[in-house]
Amino acid sequence: MKLTIINAADVRALLPMRACIGLMRRALAAAPTDGALQPIRTGLGTPDRRGGMGLMPGFVAHPPTLGVKVVTVFPGNHGGPLGSHQGMALIFNAATGAPRAVIEARALTAVRTAAATAVATDVLARADSSILAVFGLGDQAAAHLEALPMVREFARVIVWGRDVAKAAAFAAAQSERFGRAVEAIGSAQEAAGLADVLCTVTAAAEPILAGAWLRPGQHLNAVGSSIPTTSEIDVEAVVRARYFVDFEPSARALAGDFQRALAAGAVGADHMLGAVGEVITGGLTGRTGPRDITLFKSLGMVAEDLIAADFVLREARERGVGQVVDW
């Protein structure tokens, strides 16, 4: 039996963002149906509270893929060579259970998450959206700066971070990377007021974006917070928006921003309108008019990982990439 091991550099080479956007459209559309089986993510924290581990098992029917993503989150690594997120996707033969591959998951997660946000933005944002604001300076911020301009023609791209100097350096690096201007804005409120499409991709435990700053017609992607005790956006932002998610059972259990709004009595359970995949398939209305504020809450789901991993594995075998070992 042969097992393929694919490292981060190979994942990035084998999974181009534009291709991944197409894959994530399929993954999001499959999520509300029987095409994907994905229990809610489970996890544990280390006794010293330095970090934790999350496990996401699942199955998708098309193509048949069985696997689990295991990730660790150690915030103290941020800014260093390891990064705050580490992990691997373990892929098995869906018919026999035999191991097929071990795929580095930090790169896989960065690409698939931004690609899923791009799909949601394409489905929910106004067609005339011209200014993009990204709140955050890490791996996901860079990935979103790559992905979002693939679904909208932005005349202006801005970024915000708590550290003004780091934000300026990040903007300069991304400007050079993409060959187009990326501006650093010193005020989160100013960035929110300017943008047509907003993406929060921070590690913030408490809100860095206020609903009072939003204006009619905007689209917001809330991506960074993924556990019930944290939220990048405040209750008013939830209240003012048409609220969509990637996978509803997971969002009801893990979306801290929605849980805070529920606990405050500001919204009812039906304020969560459903999965963006239902908008893709026509079962749910997304934007009802140009003045709607739409919101996509991204928690990540294993169907995204499995569909992306299967693509990476097929590409690797076709190109002779990766390390193949006897198992």
Quick recap of the structure?
This protein is of the alpha/beta class and 327 residues long.
Account of the 3D structure:
This protein is of the alpha/beta class and 327 residues long. It is built from eleven helices and 16 strands. Strands 1, 2, 3, 4, 5, 6, 7 and 16 form an eight-stranded mixed sheet that branches. Strand 8 (131-135), helix 4 (139-147) and strand 9 form a beta-alpha-beta unit. Helix 2 crosses helix 3. It is globular.
Oligomeric status of the shown chains? single chain
CATH homology superfamily name of the largest domain: NAD(P)-binding Rossmann-like Domain
Q: Which word captures the global form?
A: globular
Unreliably modeled segments:
none
Give the CATH level 1 class of the largest domain.
Alpha Beta
Largest sheet: 8 strands, mixed
- The CATH architecture of the largest domain can be given as 3-Layer(aba) Sandwich
- Helix content range: 25-40%
Number of strands: 16
